[in-house]
Amino acid sequence: MKFLDLIHAFKPNPKSNIQEYWRVLDYFSHLPESLSTFTWLFDDVGIPQDYRHMEGFGVHTFTLINKARRVRYAMFHWKPTCRVKCLLDDEAKRVGGDNHSHATQDLYDSIKAGNYPEWKLFIQTMDPEVEDKFNFNPLDVTKI
Question: Please, what is the average pLDDT of the chain?
């Protein structure tokens, strides 16, 4: 049910069709476990400069099983080799106002110039036997 409430919180006001952030803030205020997600959304890292300079996170936890049938839970993280770069509000308004597809344009132009983007893949693993030893759900999609 939380996911449906989240989607509802991000929808615009049904009468005015204007997004009201008090609805989002109200939703997050009732879920302390969402603090990490909240900070990502409302911090300057919430506005990536472009695709080449942003991190990627797999939302779900996967199960990896090797040939010996040993099981590990895994989460995937991608880190750009050219480091993370973000836009401040004023920059985002200017850049997005000039070209709403600026991130795609940057990616296209970079590849065309031979400057191929690159990310390093990191795999965070956990033995299923330790899952219950945490005082929170380590497989929760709001945890990184």
Answer: 89
Query: Band of the pLDDT at 128, cuts 50, 70, 90?
Result: very high
d(CA 52, CA 144): 21
Beta bridge partners of residue 65, listed in sequence order: 71
In angstroms, how far is CA 91 from the centroid of its own chain? 20
Q: Are 61 and 72 in contact (CB under 8 A)?
A: no
Nearest partner of 77 among 49, 47, 55, judged by Cα: 55
Structure tokens at 79: 């880190």
* Backbone phi, psi, residue 20, to 5°: -120, 115
**Is the distance from CB of 144 to CB of 40 less than 8 angstroms?**
no
Distance between CA atoms of 18 and 7, rounded to whole angstroms? 15
